[in-house]
Write a structure and sequence with these properties.
The protein is an alpha+beta fold and about 350 residues long. Helices cover about 45% and strands about 15% of the residues. The chain folds into two domains: about 130 residues, no CATH class; about 140 residues, NADH Oxidase. The protein is built from 16 helices and twelve strands. The protein has a five-stranded mixed β-sheet. Helix 8 links the parallel strand 7 and strand 8. Helix 1 crosses helix 3, helix 6 packs across helix 13 and helix 6 runs antiparallel to helix 14. The structure holds flavin mononucleotide (FMN). Flavin mononucleotide binds next to helix 3 and strand 10.
Length: about 350
């Protein structure tokens, strides 16, 4: 069978897939595929790109929530009626959405500019707070039971930075997370040209940071140096970077279940797009939500459980809610960072069975 080209897909399919392609994902893993069967477009999990993360992993659910938000915003922009879209039972099933062919045929050539402008900025930001009206607007945004909290007092930011330091210290001791991050890093232009993963240029590393990341990418070295406390030092650096901002924005809620993570992903993307609209830079930090969810799922080694539990209790007391879905460092940018690449459309858009039978 010949490999499908972009011409095998109607314009509306390409438009929606291109818009979905711009969605952020943990370590730029892009764990999705778009399957066109000649009639409808399916939005599905792609296991080969989820790495060790299954489709029920909270980071994947956040990304799929953001993906749905991108697709709905793209549909609204093009005047495509999304009322007929069917939601799958994701993540129990691999399909998030089934999108039937719209009645209209004309769609824009490119995704909405608002979706293309959004990006991650890991450089330091200015420390002036967000405009008050924007903070108030964000704090009123919700999706299901997930809500937004804005922290812009320096004492609040320092408190959250301390929690990030603690979570980060545990993360640098986790072989599983270390290996996942190491396989995501792209050091050379050839590696980055694959279009997925984290190009080191986008990481805003301090001098020597690139060589250190490369050295520590081997878990045995990280584990050895942890014995001398390098995990504490790295965690301290990560936490101090968190304070270089105007405000920290937390997505919180009462429940840790798949539907809540998907809702949080939709809200994450809406908040991110809204901040981008006003020229405010965004840097997501998943390390603390990840610690809370690993603790809830029994995924913390026994020796670290006490420290993890105390960190989780302190985080919940500070946030006033049981669940933290995501933390965003935000502020007026000082620099425009290099942009992360994406996989080519051909890699994520395929023909489904109904169509293959006809060809
Ligand atoms: C669920 C999720 C978790 C993320 N966690 C982090 C994080 O902890 N640290 C970080 O620097 N970026 C994080 N990111 C940002 C991604 O690395 C980024 O979206 C991806 O590399 C694509 O780049 P872009 O946002 O510039 O398009 C996260 C994104 C998502 C959706």
């Amino acid at each position: 069978m010949t490999r499908p080209t972009n011409h095998d897909f109607p314009a509306w399919v390409r438009y929606l897939a291109e818009s979905g392609r711009l969605t952020p994902s943990a370590d730029n893993s892009q764990p999705w595929r778009f399957v066109f069967d000649g009639h409808a477009l399916g939005v599905e999990f792609e296991p080969s790109r989820g790495g060790t993360l299954g489709r029920d992993h909270p980071a994947v659910l956040l990304a799929f929530g953001a993906l749905e938000e991108n697709l709905r915003q793209a549909a609204a922009h093009a005047g495509i009626d999304a009322a007929a879209w069917r939601r799958g039972n994701f993540p129990a099933d691999e399909r998030l959405l089934t999108i039937p062919a719209p009645t209209q045929t004309a769609v824009p050539d490119t995704p909405p500019a608002a979706l293309s402008r959004r990006h991650t900025n890991r450089a330091p930001f200015r420390t002036e707070p967000l405009p008050e009206s924007l903070g108030t607007e964000l704090a009123a945004m919700t999706e299901d039971d997930v809500r937004v909290q804005v922290f812009d007092r320096r004492d609040q930011i320092r408190r959250l930075a301390d929690l990030i330091r603690r979570a980060s210290r545990l993360r640098f001791q986790s072989e599983k997370i270390h290996r996942w991050l190491a396989q995501s890093l792209r050091f050379t232009p050839e590696e980055a040209a694959r279009g997925d993963g984290l190009a080191v240029e986008t990481l805003a590393l301090p001098p020597g940071g690139r060589a250190l990341s490369r050295f520590l990418a081997d878990w045995r070295r990280q584990a050895f140096l942890n014995r001398f406390g390098i995990h504490r030092l790295l965690a301290r650096i990560e936490a101090s970077q968190l304070t270089r901002c105007g405000a920290l924005v937390a997505l919180t809620g009462p429940a840790d279940e798949a539907a809540a993570w998907l809702a949080a992903g939709r809200l994450l993307q809406r908040v991110w797009l809204r901040l981008t609209e006003d020229g405010i830079a965004v840097h997501p930090y998943f390390v603390l939500p990840d610690l809370l969810q690993r603790l809830a799922r029994g995924d913390i080694p026994a020796a670290q459980q006490e420290f993890a539990r105390r960190t989780a209790t302190a985080a919940r007391a500070f946030l006033g809610e049981p669940q933290l879905f995501m933390l965003l460092r935000t502020g007026v940018p000082r620099k425009t960072p290099p942009r992360a690449a994406r996989l080519p459309l051909e890699a994520i858009l395929t023909l489904g069975t109904a169509n293959r039978r006809q060809t």
